[in-house]
Every structure is written in C-alpha cells, then in structure tokens.
Amino acid sequence: MGSTPSTSVSNGLSATPSTVDFGDVNVGDNSALAAIVANHGTGSATISSVVAEGKGFTVTSPKVPYTLAAGQTVNIGTSFSPSSAGTADGTILVTASFDQQLSSARQPTSLKINLHGNGVTPTLVATPTSVNFGDVGVGSTGTAQVQLSLSLPKSGKSSSASVTISAASISGSGFSIPNSPFPITLVGSETASFSVEFAPQAAGTASGSVSLQSNASDSVDTVALSGNGVTTAHSVALAWDAPASVSGSTLDGYDIYRGDASASSCSGVTFSQVGSTSGASATTFTDKNVLGGHTYCYQVTTVATNTATSTTSESSPSNVAQATVPSP
User: Fold this and answer.
1) Which of 47, 52, 54, 13 is nearest to 34 (CA)?
2) Which residues contact 270 (CB under 8 A, 6 or more apart)?
3) Rounded CA gap, 255 and 258, in Å?
4) Does the global pTM surpass 0.85?
C-alpha cells in the first residue's frame, strides 16, 4: 500500500519511512516493501543484524554483515504474508557499529523501523444472485447454473488467496441441487459452478433460496430462487445440424436457449438457457416446459473444450427458430 513519510534516527543512522505500512493484503498472499537506511556518520558502519519481529513479517535484504559507507544508503527489504484476517504490527531492528565513533554516538547502535499491515479475506460472489425458473411444467424439471467466484480486496489473477465453500443448503418446495459438488475451494481468479433444479409437483408459484457456507469474509452467501409450476402436456421438438468441425477444440455438446416471443415476433427477445445436450452428435432437444397459446424463440450454441488449454468456451448463438404452441 504505502508507508508513513517520516524518518527514524538513531546515533548516525536514519530510516525513511519510520513506519512501513503494507495496507490490506489478501490472506495467503505476499506483499514486499522497503525502508531506506542512511549513514550520517563520518565513517563507514557495519550492519551486523537486521531482524523482523511480528506475525507475518520477514526481512528480505540486505545480507549481513553489510558495510554502509558514510553518506550512503541501503534498502531494508521486508515482506508481509498474513496467515489470518486482522491487523498486524511488528518492528525491524537494525544493529550496526561505526568504524569512527561519533561524539554523540554509542556503539553498537540500534535503529527501529515500525511495521504495520492488515490481512483481509476475499468475498464470495454468486452469479446470478437470484434465479427465476419461470413456468415449468408439473412433472418436468427446469435447470439453472450458478457461478461462484472471489472478489479479491487487493490482488488480481496472480493471487493465491483462497476460499472454501464447505456446503450448500436449499429451501423451498421443488428446488434441489443435483450431484452436489461441495466442498469447493477457489483460489485467486478461479471460478466454479453448480446446478439448481426446479421440479414442481403441483401448479402454482414457489420460492426458496440456496445458502452457501464458506470461510469467506461473508461467511454465508444466499441465492434467491423462484418458479411457477404449470400443468401442460405441450412440448417443442428441436433439431439442428452439427458443425463440420471446431478448430483446435473438442465439441462437448450444445446449450439451448429460449425466449418468449412478443406479438409473434422474435425481435428483441431476451433468451435464457432451458437445457443442454452432451456429445457432438446430440443434435435434438425436446422442450417440455411450454404453455399452450405461446410463441417461443430458440437458439443453440456449441460448447467446446480447447485441446491446448483445456478451457471451455461457448460459441455465438445460431439462427433463431420460432415455434407456436397451440392452445389447449
């Protein structure tokens, strides 16, 4: 972060700043700063020891013994690596002796540099913070994905700060987490996701929530859930052509998106995922969560894994297909 812009003086030696302030540092990360020690004596000074005290603080330079000529300076390198959240204070004690003793100096002489830092833990972020399954047919299942990531107070992608989501509890009739992946540990910029399902057993609205327990600074994070169970026997069958190839990647499957048409037009429709298929040849999907008298718009994307980096990506959506469900 920064340092207190003042000077500590002791018998011919001075340190600037007198307090090295690391500010906020993620638990598990390391931050490095330095203080400048100057020799104001008339002869060289031999620094015999540089010792840090205080939890999480260490001295990184210089190697001792170190000879500091008159009028010269040396950087005293120090680092702060908090192992837990909270403020920490410490000191660096520089011990030296002068070749030519100053009239006002005592030998050996010691110089103290104050240290301060604050260990901080990441915040768990769930996206989205609320899931609305919309209309789902009784006896059918709607699925949504929730992504988990960390909001890091200080560091970016190189951070080694971590959070473990130990468990998730779910409330509300018809809502569930299939194949629970917990516990999950996220480090730095890593992300993870889990599925939430809504399978109404009766017609009517339903609400609930997912509560995530973790060791993040916000130890419990909540995702609101809502949906509407509807009685329907209608369905829309979709089929599409597989791409000829996906350059440099392995085709994993397809994601299917749907939007409700306004005035029988798909222009400006907002799409949301209604399902997925697994495998390059899985080019059909039946949407059973539709209502009679409604017009729906559909798009399909490919999901592929890059063979070089093992990262998964989703293609741009296909052309739009429109289907009108007859009234009961």
Assistant:
1) 52
2) 259
3) 10
4) no
Phi, psi dihedral angles at 118 (to 5 degrees): -135, 115
Eight-state DSSP code of residue 104: T
Regarding whether 225 and 157 lie in a shared domain, the answer is yes
Same-domain status, 92 and 143: no
CA 49: distance to chain centroid? 40
> What is the C-alpha separation between 230 and 138, in angstroms, rounded?
6
Identify whether residues 270 and 247 lie together within a single domain: yes
Tokens of 220: 């419990």
DSSP classification of residue 216:
S
Structurally, how many domains does the chain consist of? 3
Provide CB contacts within 8 A for 285, sequence distance 6+.
237, 238, 254, 256, 275, 277
**Which are the contacts of 4, defined by CB distance < 8 A and separation ≥ 6?**
17, 18, 19, 20, 21, 114
Residues of the chain with pLDDT under 50: 1, 3-5, 102-106, 156-157
- pLDDT tens for residues 224-248? 999 999 886 789 999 999 988 788 8
Q: Tokens 């109404």 appear where?
A: 200
Residue at which a domain ends, from 231, 252, 275: 231
| Domain boundary residue, one of 88, 120, 152 | 120
Note whether 43 and 114 are same-domain residues: yes
Q: Are residues 319 and 309 in the same domain?
A: yes
C-alpha distances in Å from residue 121, one per residue of 30, 86, 193:
13, 9, 21
User: What does 218-271 look like in DSSP terms, one character per residue?
Assistant: S-EEEEEEEEEEE-----EEEE-PPPS--TTEEEEEEEEEEEE-BTTB-TTPPP
pLDDT of residue 28: 78
Find out whether 214 and 165 touch, Cβ atoms under 8 Å. Answer: yes
User: In angstroms, rounded to a whole number, what is the distance separating the alpha carbons of residues 32 and 1?
Assistant: 10
Residue from 141, 139, 140, 157 nearest 149 by CA: 157
User: Which residue range(s) make up the domain with 255?
Assistant: 235-328
Mean pLDDT value across the chain: 88
